[in-house]
Amino acid sequence: MSPRSDTFEALRSDLADFPVIDTHEHTAGPEHYPRCDEPIAALIQGYVRSDLVSAGGEGDVEMLADCSVATRKKWPIFRKLWARTEHTGYAHVTKWILKHQYGVETLSLKALESIKPKLADLSDPKGYEAYLDKHNIKCRLVDLVMFPQIRRDFLAGKHKLPPRDRLMISLPELHSIRSFEQINEITQRSGRCVTSLDEYLEVLGEQLDRYLKLAAAGAKDQSAYNRGIAYDNPPKARADELFNRIIADPRASLGWPEAKPLDDFIFGALMRLARDKQIPIQLHTGHMAGIRNDIAKTRAVLLTKVLELHRDVNFDLFHGNWPYAGDWLYLGKNYPNVHLDCCWVHIIDPRYARRVLADSLVTVPHSKIHGFGGDYLDSIMHAAGHLAIAKDNIAAALTEMVDSGWMDAAQARQVAADWLFNNPNEFFKLGFEPISV
Ligand SMILES: [Zn+2]
Question: How many domains is the chain partitioned into structurally?
Fold first, then answer.
């Protein structure tokens, strides 16, 4: 797919050395690196499993991902499913690892068995940091949504993140309140037991301050997985009524959509706190991990009311809003408080990423694009594969614009540096020296 022109080759080779700010990861550090000495399970960590399921492997993927099942036993099923899905963006991350980490060009049982003794273990902090250095990833914004205990310990000042990681505060649990138990779980972190919505919001404000003191770089919301992202602006009395009902009876709980006014009101209150405390907000839009979710509820355009109401909050809209590119570009162009984040989209759909980046260059100020976020839960090696594909996509998009005479090669290099480093550095106030190439 690479346009192998001289422009592309020169640009891609320059990009290889650019420093990168990875705007979105879920990995929690070397001690959580998934140690696995079975090649198929090690290679199919992350998103490619969804493609294997989509290709008919729903009943098989759990077994394929099990490190204790022998490669030889898995091979007949894996071979069949891999043949069906090896050309997707997700599968190309696996191919990148095979080729660049283990020198394997073609997948076979023999090749898999040959890499078994070489499977990389990045659970040692030195090796982990060295691997990220090798890929010139200077900073990672991490959303530890899958690690509630780490988030609790972090807030209590008992957990230190790896040196280049900055925490993104996880918002969904703070506003998706349905029961006394959930309220208590949040407020206990501050040693408080609240009796009203006002007191609950006071606790949220205190906790945000504490996160910021501990160097959180912003907040992240992926409620799109569980609810529509069309947030209303309900009167406080409706939210008070629902909150009072569950706070007064620990056995009561709210259903959906009954809880929506309370959920929406607290989300709005969090946006006001974000405005006052200058916290940038990352929002999930578009495609969701896994299978069988409803894309209609996650379209970025559903956020219009939020973006218009909270115009002093800076928003970072995720994942290219795949597959709704036009809406995403429109929101970035139309709202000064909206930036566009390409995390994950480079492997969801590499061709879409190339198109939308080239389109963004002529429609949206290029200072508003954040070029890369790996978005892997488990493995920094998979994130590195993703980064290589992202750099291919960025070089291809800019090659198109250089070869058509829209810009020159030096300008293209600077745009790539801004997308990958300078823009997120400035937006999240990370404090690095900007780079000029
Ligand atoms: Zn994510």
Answer: 2
